[in-house]
Design goal:
With about 200 residues, the protein is mainly β. It contains no helices and 19 strands. It folds into two domains: about 120 residues, no CATH class; about 70 residues, SH3 type barrels (Roll), CATH 2.30.30.
Length: about 200
């Protein structure tokens, strides 16, 4: 749908509908466009007042409307990002899930609360949604801790070739990729390994 902008001569592309299947009407007005992305701001429509911008959610990019949620997807350099915006009953719309692609096969999944507190739930295969595990391929590799400024510090714990781990998340630091891992041995260890030392499966 194209709507007329009364303040300017240009028209604005809009999407109108019940985005979250909750019997409320919304309108998304296009605010920006590039070769790969189209951004929209979302407004609530009410019979008793003028449309108002929905607080608590970012602009939606290349939106898709699936199963009562709005999926915003965009490409940033070589990676795809997907953000699911949910609207549970008696709550406000909020970011409820984030997915970031590592490559064409693997993506991280983070579940978010209404306070935008997003926590990694694991890496999954993009096509099947199954959780990704990993096997250590180096003879001995120390588990690392990564600081907020991207410094990797080895811990005393190490893994050996053939050890199997759960893959929880990934990070790119100075063109190196690291996996956040969980190892269940005599005790559970959570830390980071360089992607060169582990094979996902």
């Amino acid at each position: 749908m194209v709507v007329r902008n009364e303040l300017e001569e240009a028209s604005v592309e809009a999407i109108v509908g019940d985005f979250w299947d909750n019997q409320q009407c919304f309108i998304a007005l296009k605010t920006a466009e590039s070769d790969v992305n189209e951004s929209y701001d979302v407004y609530a429509i009410s019979r008793s007042s003028a449309p108002s911008k929905v607080s608590g959610i970012p602009s939606i990019v290349n939106p898709d409307f699936v199963d009562g949620s709005v999926v915003s997807s965009y490409r940033d350099a070589a990676r795809w990002h997907k953000e699911k915006i949910c609207y549970p009953q008696a709550q406000s719309p909020h970011l409820c899930e984030k997915r970031d692609s590592l490559d064409d096969n693997i993506e991280s999944v983070k579940k978010c609360t209404t306070k935008d507190d997003c926590r990694a739930t694991g890496l999954v295969f993009s096509t099947s949604g199954k959780l990704v595990s990993g096997q250590v391929t180096s003879s001995r590799v120390f588990i690392m801790q990564i600081s907020s400024d991207g410094e990797a510090t080895p811990l005393r714990s190490y893994l050996v070739k053939g050890d199997r781990v759960k893959l929880l998340d990934f990070k790119s630091i100075r063109s190196e990729t690291y996996y956040q891992i969980e190892y269940d041995g005599k005790r559970t260890i959570v830390g980071w390994l360089n992607a060169d030392d582990i094979t996902p499966y």
